[in-house]
Amino acid sequence: MSAPRITVAGSVNLDLVARCDHLPVAGETVLGGVFAQHPGGKGANQALAARRLGAEVEMLACVGSDANAEAALSLLQADGVGLAGCHSLTCAATGIALIAVSDSGENQIVVAPGANAAFTPDLLPDIIDGALIAQLEIPIETVFEAAARCTGFVALNLAPAADVPGELLQRAHLIVVNEGEAAFYGLDRLKAAGGLLAVTLGAAGAVLCRDGAEIARAAPPDVTVVDTTGAGDTFVAALTVALLEGQTDADALTFACAASALSVTREGAQPSLPRRKDVDALIAAGNTGA
């Protein structure tokens, strides 16, 4: 079977991460943090995850003409994600994410979008062949136009939550949200869009619906949580890859939950993204829930 061909239209950031024993509340300063720097951005995370899970991937994105761009794109380039559609802009800096991660693995994230906010529809190719994955860390009008220009399967991760036109939801073959995003948009509205709907439930796994009815549910394996950054992006990429490969709905959801679980066992968004062989081994070992 040939590898799925996926184009990802989305954000590229450089993640500046501080690990500390607990996350600060408003007005609190937490000392003793340990700093690290990783490539990130929901778009780039999903592109790299799809590539590591076996897809041929092209990235459509914008970065700044600055020193952070090379670091932000480094792992995409190293793993063979196509970057011909990644534009270097002089009008904006490369996106930056400021991330605090607690010892329990929970995180707080503030994003300065920079060049991601300058990713306008005119920078898209006229036609996007094959499948598309998109999120909402770039302008909504660019996401809408990318979906309109796609000739194949459209996976839409409605994160971070934002107002989107109903026409965009109806164009998606797959919509992925977490529980908070599902509440923001309203489950009835998402189910009425007509495609597959996946809702992630954190440690409880995920559920998949079609035509308003649940068709599959999966729970992740038990793992030691180190950093949850990028887990949702891993899920989106894994579910899309599995569905494009023709896996059953139940198997695809199990695959996505297993991949997402593996991603939380290491620090950083992109450094933690799992390889296909490791996900397959975890599933083959029977260490997954249902």
From TrEMBL:
Among InterPro entries, the record links this protein to: Carboh/pur_kinase_PfkB_CS, PfkB_dom, Ribo/fructo_kinase, Ribokinase, Ribokinase-like
Free-text function comment from the UniProt entry: Catalyzes the phosphorylation of ribose at O-5 in a reaction requiring ATP and magnesium. The resulting D-ribose-5-phosphate can then be used either for sythesis of nucleotides, histidine, and tryptophan, or as a component of the pentose phosphate pathway.
Its Gene Ontology molecular function terms? ribokinase activity
Cofactor details (free text): Requires a divalent cation, most likely magnesium in vivo, as an electrophilic catalyst to aid phosphoryl group transfer. It is the chelate of the metal and the nucleotide that is the actual substrate.
The protein's predominant localisation is: cytoplasm
Q: What's one Pfam family here?
A: PfkB
How, per the record, is this protein's activity regulated? Activated by a monovalent cation that binds near, but not in, the active site. The most likely occupant of the site in vivo is potassium. Ion binding induces a conformational change that may alter substrate affinity.
- HAMAP family, A to Z: Ribokinase
Question: Which pathway is this protein assigned to?
Answer: Carbohydrate metabolism; D-ribose degradation; D-ribose 5-phosphate from beta-D-ribopyranose: step 2/2
Q: Where is ATP bound in this sequence?
A: 178, 200-205, 232-233
Q: Where in the cell is it found?
A: Cytoplasm
Report the family membership.
Belongs to the carbohydrate kinase PfkB family. Ribokinase subfamily.
Boundaries of every Carbohydrate kinase PfkB domain copy: 5-274
- State what protein this is by name: Ribokinase
Organism of origin:
Hyphobacterium vulgare
The entry's substrate-binding residues are 13-15, 41-45, 137, 233
Could you say which cofactors this protein requires? Answer: Mg(2+)
Question: What is the protein's quaternary organization?
Answer: Homodimer.
State the superkingdom. Answer: Bacteria
Binding-site residues, K(+): 227, 229, 263, 266, 268, 272
The major lineage groups are: Bacteria, Pseudomonadati, Pseudomonadota, Alphaproteobacteria, Maricaulales
Keywords noted in UniProt: ATP-binding, Carbohydrate metabolism, Cytoplasm, Kinase, Magnesium, Metal-binding, Nucleotide-binding, Potassium, Transferase
